[in-house]
Amino acid sequence: MSRLLHISASPRGAASESLAIAGTFADAYRDVHGDVVDHLDLWDGALPEFGPAGAGAKMTVLAGAEPSGEQAAAWRAARAVFERYDSYDRYLFSVPMWNSGVPYVLKQFIDVVSQPGWVFRFDAEEGYTGLLHGKKAAVVYTSAVYGEGRPPAFGRDHQAAFLDGWLRWTGVTDLARVEFRPNLATADADAGRRAAHAEARELGKRF
After folding, report:
1. Terminal Cα-to-Cα distance of the chain (whole angstroms)
2. Are 96 and 9 in contact, with CB atoms under 8 Å apart?
3. DSSP-derived secondary structure letter, 14
4. Does residue 187 carry a pLDDT above 80?
5. Residue 166, class by beta-carbon neighbours within 10 Å (0-12 exposed, 13-18 middle, 19+ buried)?
6. pTM
7. Which of 26, 47, 142, 146 has the most CB within a 10 Å radius?
8. Which residues touch 72 (CB under 8 Å, ≥6 apart)?
9. How far is CA 126 from CA 42, 44, 111, 184, 187, in A?
10. Which of 109, 126, 106, 128 is nearest to 117 (CA)?
């Protein structure tokens, strides 16, 4: 049976547009597929650090050795996050734009799970190969000012480009997205919000 994990990167709770749209997707998915949608809230404080010990462990593994001591403990903590993520074959990400990019907790999650032998393999001649095959992802992207076609003064997209690129790098190439990008300074957002929820509902039904 397929399993869906919702990974949320907004700390704004009921005020979050990305969480609300993802909720519409998840409700439609449950109604059609009858599956449970699990939720990984990246702001719940459970993500481990990936600092000196973690980085050292990664380089130790890349060198073909086994981490020990503090490095081993950091590697085990990262591995637990990866194993939870890898146990699902369908993903729903809800991602607000922060400073033209993604919230730092999402980057932290990516840095924790992006390890050799887990999400990628590296060959000196062939380069990187993603290892997460047979999975699919849907992403809800929101932004309050940036939007395609607006001048650079309204921001640039280092959000979708980054996350879509990372997913493909890991081997997840079956991607779908819903975007809600009103210019809140000048526009009525209601029509765009309704359209985004409708799109999320239809995508959730067929995901």
Report:
1. 13
2. yes
3. G
4. no
5. middle
6. 0.93
7. 142
8. 57, 66
9. 33, 38, 22, 45, 48
10. 128
* Interatomic CA distance for residues 173 and 171, integer angstroms: 6
The tens digit of pLDDT for each residue in 149-184 reads 787 878 788 999 999 999 999 999 999 999 999 876
Domains of the chain, residue spans: 4-206
Strand-pair partners of 137: 91, 175
Q: What angle do CA 133, 58, 5 make, to 5 degrees?
A: 40
Q: What share of the chain is helix, strand, coil (3-state, %, to 5)?
A: 45, 20, 35
Q: How many CB atoms lie within 10 A of CB 202?
A: 14
Q: Which of 184, 173, 179 is nearest to 159 (CA)?
A: 179
